[in-house]
């Protein structure tokens, strides 16, 4: 779906910025699994992580400290080291002639930065000016579901409640969940350091700052990014983002109102064939998507459960 | 709020039916904590639990097998042994002259059975004909929030997503969650026996049968019971009920549309003073209700978080 000439027709020099983080590790895994055409891979991170050795295609690579020189000759930078790191290095990266695909929230809402979900709005990449942004995790799942439905009937209003795993807060949050769960099981009182509260057998509103409108930042990311990706700046959309004691994979309960009646069977067929989705629903067995279904897998599991007319 | 003559002005003979279950245990605890006026307490259960000894007010009581004779002279039966047990003993209980307060779903939607949340519709008890039903757990939380708001502005539509703890599935489900969590932490594959799937670091649609309309039974209980309690048979209301790996206390993300604008501050003040509720919200600290706030406590914690205009 990308323009044919988007990248030169040769293996690329790729840098992963934030190679030691939870997302960086997943990126390395995917680049190998998908045989991404790479002639040279540079693993970049903060000074703290420099020197770490990461396995790569049967061999290994040493993580380097990020620097101006590290981007020389690079074609593509996959950045996932947080918004401030992305902001700090954007100019250097673009001056080196590299395209930055940024997983942070730094530039997502900038008018000159395409915000892309490949299955939803691949055409947007053509307008990039050196940076393509990747949306927030919860936004990706949602737009994969909204896009095929919105292509058939206009959306009137969307209400989402999320069930977000510890993985979204990084590898340390996952470790903390496991550790504090042990503490609770031992009958002791858990005390969190990574997340603001103990997530062990508990849940809480997403740990991002509250905004003036009383939504948390994660919720407004979801609202604003979805509107941008879908090209629906006025979409009525409210989200409640909750962190739950799941290690990996976010879930969402999504209620969508359409301008016209939308037969459930028609919606189900659309979801069944939509790119990036896997329909998991067995009404007799009460078997619908669970985090353990999708952990370490690519497709987003979806069901048309409770698609009623209320 | 009860009619003054609802009960005789003397300590009552009370039977707890299902005294050995998770809810029965909570009932015994509450009867003691609240110094409920009891002259004789009978603990009744299936043959399997007969003979168990339960602590009671510094002494102890032996659980008896439920029988016709066990209800003789009883004023009040608190039943929480499942719908089939309630159905089986209703006639016997009423013939013995006792009032049955039933926690099962057996009679909730019957026209001659008041379905009561004391803070919401206490007046409904006056119409009882031997049975007063107690709604489903998720319905109680929700109506405590809806009632004070609906008294001020007409409800247009309600969308709820639940985050339900293992406790709702009983003591064995709570034990299973703890045990399977240990299994996952040990790096092994959990295999559930009580709940249909392992809840350890996982979540799934509520484990109740699916209905013809593609909602699960738990969701339709919530919809139908809420409509009955609120006296709004046509209320537009959809629910998605999800079991999460929390031990105790259900949570709900509730989105309410009103017919007219409802200033958030006005709603907040109503929730702050409403019976049965405790407002927990600190926008600066991102501190909102969590299951661990309310475990072993009576009030339902509520926040006006993300009360926007979408």
Features:
homodimer, 310 residues, alpha/beta, Rossmann fold, Dihydrodipicolinate Reductase, domain 2, 2 domains, six-stranded parallel sheet, three-stranded mixed sheet, 7 helices, 22% strand, globular, EC 1.2.1.11 (chains A, B), lysine biosynthesis (chains A, B), methionine biosynthesis (chains A, B), oxidoreductase (chains A, B), NAD binding (chains A, B)
Report the portion of residues of chain A in β strands.
15-25%
Query: How much is the radius of gyration of chain A in Å?
Result: 20 Å
Return the domain count of chain A: 2
Q: What structural category do the secondary elements of chain A indicate?
A: alpha/beta
CATH superfamily of the largest domain in chain A: Dihydrodipicolinate Reductase, domain 2
Query: What general form of chain A does the structure show?
Result: globular
Main β-sheet description of chain A: 6 strands, parallel
Instruction: Give the H and E element order of chain A.
Output: EHEEEEEHEEHEHEHEEEHEHE
Query: Separation of termini of chain A?
Result: 37 Å
Unreliable residue stretches of chain A: 1-5
The name of the CATH architecture of the largest domain in chain A is 2-Layer Sandwich
Q: How many individual β-strands of chain A?
A: 15
Quaternary arrangement of the chains shown? homodimer
The percent of residues in helical segments of chain A reads 25-40%
Query: Largest interface here, residues on each chain?
Result: A-B, 55 and 54 residues
CATH-defined fold name of the largest domain in chain A: Dihydrodipicolinate Reductase, domain 2
